[in-house]
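I wish you would study the pair of lines that follows with an eye to the fold:

===
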Amino acid sequence: MSLRYYIFLKDVLKLSLTTFGGPQAHLAMMLRLLVEKRHYITEKELIELNALCQILPGPTSTQTLTAIGFQVGGPNLAYLTLLVWITPTAILMTLAGLAITYLGQHQISMNFLRFIHPMAVGLVAFAAYKISSRVVNTKTGIVLMILSAVLAYFFHSPWIFPVLLLAGGAVTAIRFRKHPQEKNKKIHVDWSNFILFIAVLLGAAALGAATHWLPVRLFENFYRNGSLIFGGGQVLIPFMYSEFVDFKHYLTSEEFLSGFALSQAMPGPTFIFCTYIGTLAMRPYGFGGQ
């Protein structure tokens, strides 16, 4: 691996340890360090990559940074970029989950976290406001948002979210079907990676249903949620609260909100909150399992 790639990974590590504030702040830091200072890519290329990742499910800033790694050094550097970006925060959130487990096992009061819970609720409310003000700007969007909120309130099931996403996509496609479309453009698509993606999703779901083994079920849960969520890590929160707190009871509401508030104080990707959830969900398997 060339010296340039080592320097690039060092810059990614610097971003992982110093970027706070969610995808928008991450993008600003990428622009300053990777574009203006290091010139790995141009500003236009960064904006195009970020725009592409905005329409894909999953963590926007993580995908953008991984795509930059791919453009700089191909798939191998992209894999290393992803690992360097997520590892520091993953370790911190795992330690937070282990600390919560230790306090619970030794019956140590967690009253010192009582002020974190309202902060977490406020952060979720602010994220909802920011997202809705940016993307809900039509009458159709407002109606879909209200209906989705009402249905999600009355139906406490993890499957209500993918159903609402599919229904919203269908309604939007029908509503804007008369918009002009580009035609006569032949695009070659390599479907092998998409087929692999679907195969892993279905295989994990089938294996989890057959074995009921918690590690496999958690993998399927996180894989499915990451495959369905658009809009960044903040959108992940209601999905996971409904599934892991209301439906499966892996965590208490207090543990969930405490972890989310802590994750907002951590640098790096917001999606890494899943590490904290997984650590607490694996409590029946002991310290080694966690």
